[in-house]
Amino acid sequence: MKLGIFYLSKIFNNLPTIPMLDIESLRSYITIFLDDSNSFLLSNKNYITPCYMIDNLKLLTKICEENICWVVSERYGIYSKRIYRLLLDKTYLEQKQVSDLSMVPFKETKEILYRMYSDLVVDCNQIIRTPDANPLSSLYLFTVNFNQSISVVLEFAKSVIGKIIDRRIAVMKDIRNLLHKNTKISSEYNIDDLCRSILKSVINNEKVVKYLNELELMELLKLHNSISQLDYSEINVSRVLLVLDKYNNVQINDKTIKK
Q1: Which of 84, 146, 152, 180 is deepest in the core (most CB within 10 A)?
Q2: What sequence ranges are listed for the domain DNA-directed RNA polymerase III subunit RPC3 winged-helix (predicted)?
């Protein structure tokens, strides 16, 4: 699935002004890009009048990989992203190879692989090497089933969104209770309207600040910060859901067209 044809001159003319970048330099950069076997950029391989196309499915796959790596990193720690990306590139690796190539200590590698395997984020294939199928003599190769990873991460993301919603409701309840306990605030203002204004800003909300003591203000700032963090997390997780769901739909449509 490809979209549009772009000539080198058109790409160059539509780029913002970049010092020291001429059309030959651009050609060199694009050539490096094309040398990657997994590149989503395609070329007609004509040096005189080169033109390029974007493989949308490959591009979307790359975006999916980045989003999955973000979720993996958030769920299993910073080393896990390196391990997952390595398995995407190398396909089949033993645990020792994963540790060596990712430059992650063996103990941490073992723990991360076990957790990801337990959650079906990665697969493990047993290669039997003895007639009695002795597990101790078998070879265990770790790999990534990309479509399975997408399904698992989608479930993770949906679960996280639910937890974010529940947590936001709890924090909003704490904010409402804090304001309601202050008799001056509760008697003079509508608590629900005040809660909505507090979500935008606490310090600039003079209605609140003038009636709160230092401890109450600190607690309110803490709760406001929690809401901001939840909003940030929701944006990131929603992006993951959108991208992976789009990938699934494109895959389904692509298979339908081929039939």
Answers
A1: 84
A2: 71-144
Looking at the domain covering 59-144, what would its CATH class be?
mainly alpha
> Residue 122: left if φ>0, alpha if ψ -120 to 50, beta else—which one?
beta
Residue with tokens 């004509």: 46
20: left (phi over 0), alpha (psi -120 to 50) or beta: left
What would the pLDDT profile of 151-164 be if each residue is shown by its tens digit? 999 999 999 999 99
Q: Buried (b) or exposed (e) across 4-26, using 16+ Cβ within 10 A?
A: eeeebeebbeeeeeeeeeeeeeb
Q: Provide the pLDDT confidence category of residue 10 given band limits of 50, 70 and 90.
A: confident
- pLDDT tens by residue, 56-97: 888 899 999 999 999 999 999 999 999 999 999 888 999 999
Q: Give the torsion sign (CA, 69, 72, 77, 81).
A: negative
Please enumerate in sequence order all residues whose Cβ is within 8 A of that of 103, keeping only pairs 6 or more positions apart, or say none: 82
| Cβ burial, residue 133 (10 Å; 0-12/13-18/19+) | exposed
Does residue 205 surpass a pLDDT of 80?
no
**Domain residue spans of the chain:** 5-54, 59-144, 150-252
pLDDT at 30: 86
